[in-house]
Automatic annotation (TrEMBL):
Gene: ANO4
Lineage of producing organism: Eukaryota, Metazoa, Chordata, Craniata, Vertebrata
Domain of life: Eukaryota
Residues of the Anoctamin transmembrane domain: 217-779
All residue ranges annotated as the Anoctamin dimerisation domain in the record: 58-195
Name of this chain's protein: Anoctamin
A single GO molecular function term of this UniProt record: chloride channel activity
Amino acid sequence: MSPSHHLSISPSPHLTMSPSYHLSKSLQISISLHLTSHHLTISPFHHLHISPFLSSNQESDDGKTYYVKIHTPWDVLATYADVLKIKVPFKANDIPAHKDIPMNWLFTPFRLPNHIMNPEPDYFTSPFNKEKIDFFLIDDKETFFPPSVRNRIVYYILARCAYYKEDSDDKNKKGIKRLLNNGTYGAAFPLHDVRSYCITVTFLLAAKTALPSGLLKYYGEKIGIYFAWLGFYTEMLFFAAVVGLICFLYGLFTFDDNVWSKEICSEEIGGNIIMCPLCDKTCGYWKLNSTCNSSWQSHMFDNVGTVFFAIFMGIWVTLFLEFWKRRQARLEYEWDLVDFEEEQQQLQLRPEYEIKCTSRRLNRVTQVLVLPSLTCIITLATVIFWISLIIACIIGVIAYRLAVYAAFASIMKDSPTNNIHMVGSLITPQLATSVTASCINFVIIMILNVMYERVAIWITDMEIPKTHLEYENKLTVKMFLFQFVNYYSSCFYVAFFKGKFVGRPGDYIYMFGWSKLRNEECDPGGCLIELTTQLVIVMAGKQVWGNIQEALVPWLLNWWGSRKARSHPESLYSRWEQDHDLQNFSHLGLFYEYLEMVIQFGFITLFVASFPLAPLLALLNNIIEVRVDAWKFTTQFRRPVAAKAHSIGAWQEILNGVAVFSVVTNVTFTSDMIPRLVYMYAYSPDNDLSMKGYINNSLSVAMCVFITTPVSLSSRYRDYRYPPGHEKQYTHTMQFWHILAAKLAFIIIMEHVVFMVKFFVAWMIPDVPAEVKARVKRERYLIQEYLHNYEVFILMKTCT
């Protein structure tokens, strides 16, 4: 018998139970389990004259763990395929396939050729009916149901088998999950197929992003939809990466046309402009040309291409989500999920709910028992508390940035290269603060990541969700909210708050008002380069650390576990022992894979205007990610029980929300492009539309009386205010209000334009391809026609 539908169950090695422990009365099938400390058997007895399980017992190499190998014969597979309404082929598809799918040629480099993919013939399918076996295309009963269906049926039966002691009054206990939770069994998992097949699957997954058909039969639709989404996401990233690279090269090649950077670096202009001290007491004056390198670097990311790329990404994310809906609809048809209903095991009550939910009240409308309001209030308060803790951590990081900012400025004051000459040739306090703060912030993010994960699970457990589907959806929302604040908060600070609430010399704004930590200022070239630095360190660091963690940790745990488990290395190492020594693939295994990719999706959409190379980094990471996941699933984790899923679930709505929010973040105050355009069109000398004199225009003058340093000099600072001696001294000039109005107008117009394009594109692209709609209608028609003809044939055959 093929091992693909074996389910190996390993009981707890120290379990002592009465031999009269029963699993019985589940869907008219009863199974008796006889267990002693040295022997375990499953003896089937039945009501439908079918044997639900064939089993054998195996002792492990350590002599303490015992394994029960279970598989199902044809009669049981047919019975439960009928119960679960599993769709099987009944006729070859007679609708010609569309070979000219729009833009299909663009994805050809990412897909394997057909002679390697070995696609199977397309069939019309119908729910299986045991009484009409002749109606279906059954060539070989041993291979008719794929491995994923077989192990799903076995697990379905085990999840509903009742168990109780003969002298016990509680005969409602049932399910392998409860037996696993209470320690009766140590594990229950399907066996991997032969290693050569696993290696083949790994190769197919690793070769390119296309989804091989063998994966679906091996792991089922739930894992299949993840790899399909990851592959499609990687394909679409290619186009964003190409455009982002072009925008970056534009900034690189227009290096010499950057007039304002030339003015900053010029000895005649930047060398003669003395800037205000960066802190109140210990910092000295500094020359503007000390930020020369920073201004050149900023130009590579802050140029006209930045605006274009922000608009492009707003359209790209819409195309990605809309085309994914079409791909998903096509997969739903190809995988027989058109009339999909959630798996019954997903909708089944969780054992934790039945055990913990002791205090419930009756819903007046639905008459269903629900949790009391007090429990919900406590849960909400807990969520608010932990979000407040996250915000406190963010404030702590900001306070660190302000302290380090002042420290670097003070240290560089005593540098031999300073004394009112230069802060440093290659580094500025802003850049030093940004790099060190980003590194420390990344470490804090990784630490908080572990804590927030446990907190999210703890809070979700407190809510006691009724079903596994409800549990996953609630955990998804909480985890994403925690991770959203954790990963993106520092980027939001630099993009929208840093340099915006600084004040002026003599009237600076301090953190909390009473502290001595003065709010950070941006470089004269803008804050965009600091946002780029933050984004690169956090995004790249997360991706590198994530891949190392995904690949190295399971391998080390498996190596150590197999080393400890084998007391006699020279003895035969059975396949069930090998699989048992692998890492367990929990029901939240895919949850973390999706979370990792959605966080990455946020990085390449929310702040992509500051770093056009972000999609390229994501593309390179995903090329590695699909290989790591393929290797990990087939060699480092136990084979999970196959499950159905027709979509990526709650993650789809999260992606939609991030896509809409990204339009706002990419067109707001991040870039200095608007002040430059206002100067060029309204304030440039002689109205020649040049940027000559922009730096001098963008800096205001301060009197030395406001500066708490022993040196008396007239200095400059980054703002648009009237100079001392003017009747409106130190108040904002009209240019400031013009720039603010231009920014607001740009935000409103660009948001409306991008949103209109998004909605127009979404309206123009149908969620379900016309070809798929035609195939679904054709299939439904044929099912009715063939069933009618089959019934007539059977009736005539009976009459004769």
